[in-house]
Write a structure and sequence with these properties.
Layout lengths: L1 H15 L3 H18 L1 H4 L3 H11 L6 H9 L8 H23 L6 E4 L10 E9 L5 E10 L2 E9 L2 E2 H30 L9
Antiparallel strand pairs: 1-2, 2-3, 3-4, 4-5
Helix pairs in contact: 2-4, 4-6, 5-6, 5-7, 6-7
Amino acid sequence: MAAALGLSFSLAQAQASKAPDTLIKEVSTDVLDALRADKSIKQGDVQKVIALVDQKVMPHVDFQRMTSASVGRYWREATPEQQKQLQDQFKILLVRTYSGALAQVQDQTVELKPSRSNPDDKEVVVRTEVKGRGDPIQLDYRLEQTPNGWKIYDVNVLGVWLVQSYRSSFAQEIGTNGVDGLIKKLIERNSRPAPAPTKS
C-alpha cells in the first residue's frame, strides 16, 4: 500500500514538473492517437469525442478561473451554489466546443509553434497547429503555473479565445435575466444534441 501511494505521489510530482509546452504536446498527441484508433469516432460518434476530451484534456483545465473570467464581475455577486452551477455548465459547454474542433480530425498531427515565454513565467501561451489534409486547425492554450502543475485557463479554437468570446454574451444575458437566467440558458444549450462533424 505504501509503495502504491509512493508511486502515485511520484507520478503526480512528475506531471506537475512538466513544462507547459511538453504537457500540451503530450496531451494533444495522446488525444489524436486515441481519435485515430477509434473507428466509431471516425464514423462521427460525437459522444465518444466528448468522452475522450473529458478524460484526457479536462483534468488539466482550471475551471474555476476559466468560468469566473468568462462571467466577469458578476462572478463575485453569484452565490456559491450559482457559482457551482455555472462552473458545471461551462465545463460541458467547453468540452462540446473543443470536441467540435477535434471531431473533424482524421490523420492530422499536432505541431508546437515557437514559444515566446521565459522559463520563470507563471503564465504562458502555448500555440499549436493541428496539421493534415485541408487547412490547419489553430488550437492555442493559456496556462498558469499552480501547485499541481500547469493548468489551462483559456483556449483559442480557430482564432477565437473562448473566455473573451463568452464574456460579452454572458454579461448581456446576466444583465437581462440575472445569473439564474444565464444558468438556465447554458442548461438549455447543453441539452441540445451535439452537432455531427462536417465531412471535409
